[in-house]
Design brief:
single chain, alpha+beta
Length: 131
Amino acid sequence: MERKGFLAKLFTAFEQELIINTSNQEEMVWMLWSIKESTYKAYQRIHYNRGFYPVKIEIQSVKRIGKQYYSTIFLFGSLFYGKTSIKNDVIYTIVVQNKNYFKIIQTIKDTFISKDKNGLPFVVYQISLFR
């Protein structure tokens, strides 16, 4: 954050305001980056369009409700919704295009990560027939 122009290369004016006006600037930078990274990954699954364009991923709002942060994000005309948790120095963001998906997302275990022909990761469920 101390390098000249660092924030402007990665964050919009609104996002920079969020960073400047918070008591924990480092945490805010990493939370916003988590939101941007998750949005980029979600967008990749819809429109295969590789590139580095963090300023085009525009976080429009961030609201804290309890221990969660909820955000709205735009990327190339697509609207996304984010849900971010910060616990024990770990920042975890889920991004969806339909808010109702937050209700049905589940954590899964016993999985293997593989990649498709475009290099995008996907989950392979490992099913044991003999439990």
